[in-house]
Specification:
- The complex is a heterodimer of chains A (237) and B (411).
- Chain A is α/β, with parallel strands linked by helices and 237 residues long.
- Chain A is 36% helix and 22% strand.
- Chain A is globular and about 50 Å long.
- Chain A starts with a strand and ends in a 16-residue tail after the last helix.
- Chain B is mainly α and 411 residues long.
- Chain B has a two-stranded antiparallel ribbon.
- In chain B, strand 3 and strand 4 form a beta hairpin.
- The chains are: A alpha/beta (237), B mainly alpha (411).
- At the A-B interface, strand 1, strand 2, strand 4, helix 2 and strand 8 of A face helix 1, helix 2, strand 2 and helix 5 of B.
């Protein structure tokens, strides 16, 4: 469960800054919930807030379990470190058995000679497979997913899907994707961020429709200049 | 007396702010007051508006009224700002006073089907013929807020933080050394060279004794402490660098990375200082005996804490005022000569000594030397001043770090 109480968070800098969450109150209580957010940038910030990478400017967010990192992101893998060093680091901070996880990794990913090489030399798809495989290792209570959870390697996808399905049994899953197909694969009810607040929709399609309608609404109404203040009664300084 | 409707003017100004945060409002108020004071000053001799000085107090009253409204919104209504900020309706001081007087009734006892203070928002959108409607959400859990952590949970949090710092430290040691085994030697060689250069200058100049203490160990202690502080300050001040990517893992906090870096440089300079002292003991004709090694290491540890606090403050300063970064290298060279690394205050004339003793590092380094050498007992350095100074700098540093964390500044 993730609860948000009076949460305020803004996005952008300087004059481009705008409120993404405006005193938002919401409870992510369903076991499997989708997340529908207008743009990728907004979704990234919302996921950062939900898993605790960023703090809200105002209000409180609390979780009743350990959240995962947004699965599907590869930004935290440092290019000059080897796969072994990265796995060792994750094993240290999440206290999982390094040897067992190494076996799991070798079983799932055809990593071969790359394991002891710096990740900068790895093919892009291998980094993605490695990132998905490492997400199976720590015992999270809340899993956050960003993107499609799919690679070009079909056999990896099948194995990973089966293991991930087993891993999230009895745990909470919050899944952000813009694709209805991927969302429907894992979730039914979907939280939708509209005008700074979260709303819960029964169906994935309804949430995505709401987002689309909201976008078109914004496109129709922008740009909106704020009315200039009346200055007749103000002394000229 | 001239009267102006400052309240409505301020309301419009606050509405026009991109984000009406406390700091933005403060900046707005300051600029308005400055402008008004300049206006009053310009028209001091103008007979028509000779009583314009009252305007400043009117503007202050309007500001106070708006701040009272913000306080009410935050502390009574649990909101970030009053509702009028997001509307365009005209507003008068009378409206504000009426709102402040009509404080809401205390909350009723919770009922099963209400969300006390948290309206269950519903949305209904029309997509052609289809109506898309959101579901109600049970927000009753928000009423009580998060449960306070139990002592066991607090211990678990501390243990997690220690584990994460340890893991980052191990990783940082490997990445600092690079891919080659020789990298570890280079990591230590750099501070050794830095210390050798300064100590070598004393040796060349031929100063065997400084204020009764052997010159070379005297210098090693001062220079090592100073270099440790400088290095920690720069490493913490210039953000997380390449380690910033780790912040994408929820269990890793920016402060963990900073502490790990500070431990790394603390250990490195401690090792180099002890090594340099050992080498001096072996090859120098001026033999020395350590008076109280545990006390010396205790002061060294407090000095390390002081360096962390200073580094955290420095990070905030150069983020808020980037020009500080440009002058900091030059400033540090000046501060280096005043830091106590190269002298003890007892060597200085009384007039200068009074000023120098305001600097906490002078106390720290003198206390270290006092604990280290039999030949020297500091009469100026105060352990209380050094400890209190360290605690104040650390507290302020942590506050600075929190503000950067809240703003999402990692790199």
């Amino acid at each position: 469960m993730i609860a948000l109480r009076n949460v305020v968070k803004s996005l952008g800098k300087g004059s481009q800054r705008r409120d993404l969450l405006e005193e938002a109150n919401f409870v992510f209580s369903e076991e499997r919930m989708g997340l529908a957010v207008g743009t990728g940038e907004e979704a990234e910030l919302v996921l950062d807030l939900l898993c605790g990478i960023q703090k809200p400017e105002f209000g409180t967010i609390w979780r009743d379990g350990r959240p995962s990192w947004p699965i599907g992101r590869v930004g935290h893998y440092r290019a000059d470190l080897t796969g072994k060093a990265t796995l060792h680091f994750l094993a240290s901070i999440y206290q999982f058995d390094f040897r067992k996880c190494e076996d799991l990794l070798f079983g799932l990913v055809d990593i071969g000679k790359y394991y002891n090489k710096a990740m900068i030399e790895w093919p892009r798809n291998l980094i993605l497979e490695f990132s998905y495989a490492t997400a199976l290792m720590p015992n999270f209570e809340i899993y956050m997913v960003e993107g499609s959870m799919n690679t070009v390697n079909e056999s990896f996808n099948e194995d990973f899907d089966a293991m991930f399905e087993h891993r999230i049994r009895g745990k909470q899953l919050i899944y952000y994707s813009t694709s209805e197909r991927f969302l429907m694969k894992y979730v039914h009810k979907t939280a939708c961020l509209l005008d700074g607040h979260f709303y819960l929709f029964e169906e994935v399609a309804d949430a995505l429709t709401a987002i689309a309608l909201s976008k078109s609404y914004i496109e129709q109404t922008l740009p909106t200049d704020k009315p200039k203040p009346e200055r007749d009664d103000i002394i000229d300084m | 007396m001239v009267r102006a409707n400052f309240y409505s003017y301020l309301v419009d100004k606050v509405r026009a702010l991109p984000v009406p945060s406390a700091s933005a409002r403060g900046a707005l108020y300051r600029s308005l007051l400055k402008g008004l004071e300049a206006f009053v000053e310009r028209n001091r001799n103008n007979a028509e508006i000779e009583d314009a000085s009252g305007l400043v107090s009117q503007l202050s009253d309007a500001m106070e009224l708006i701040e009272r409204e913000f306080d009410k919104a935050i502390f009574t209504d649990g909101k970030r700002m009053p509702d009028w900020v997001k509307t365009t309706e005209p507003r008068t001081p009378e409206d504000a006073l009426a709102d402040l007087e009509n404080m809401p009734e205390p909350a009723l006892p919770p009922e099963a089907d209400t969300h006390l203070g948290f309206p269950a928002l519903m949305k209904e959108l029309t997509d052609g013929d289809r109506i898309v409607r959101s579901l109600p959400v049970d927000l009753s859990i928000l009423r009580d807020g998060p449960p306070p952590p139990t002592p066991v949970e607090m211990l678990a949090i501390l243990s997690t933080r220690a584990r994460v710092c340890g893991a980052i430290l191990r990783r940082y040691i490997h990445t600092s050394a690079g891919t080659e085994k020789l990298g570890y030697v280079w990591t230590l060689l750099e501070p050794i060279i830095q210390i050798t250069i300064v100590v070598g200058m004393y040796w060349i100049l031929g100063y065997p004794i400084i204020f009764g203490m052997p010159a070379i160990p005297f210098t090693i202690i001062g220079i090592s402490a100073w270099l440790m502080m400088r290095m920690i300050m720069f490493r913490l001040g210039h953000g997380l660098g390449r380690e910033a990517v780790l912040c994408a893992i929820p269990v890793v906090r920016p402060l963990d990375i900073m502490i790990a870096k500070a431990i790394f440089y603390g250990l490195m300079y401690t090792a180099v200082m002890l090594l340099a002292l050992q080498v001096t003991e072996l090859f120098n004709t001026n033999k020395f005996e350590i008076q109280n090694l545990p006390l010396f290491m205790g002061y060294w540890f407090i000095f390390w804490i002081f360096s962390i606090g200073f580094g955290l403050c420095y990070a905030k300063f150069i983020h808020s005022y980037p020009w500080i970064e440009r002058i900091s290298l030059f400033m540090l060279r000046a501060v280096y000569f005043l830091s106590g690394a190269l002298f003890v205050s007892e060597q200085l004339p009384t007039g200068i000594r009074e000023w120098i003793l305001w600097i906490p590092t002078v106390h720290g380094i003198q206390l270290m030397r006092s604990a280290f050498f039999w030949e020297y007992e500091s009469t100026d350095a105060s352990p209380t001043y050094f400890l209190v100074g360290t605690m104040l700098v650390l507290t302020f540093g942590i506050m600075c770090e929190r503000t950067l964390y809240r703003d999402g500044v990692h790199a």
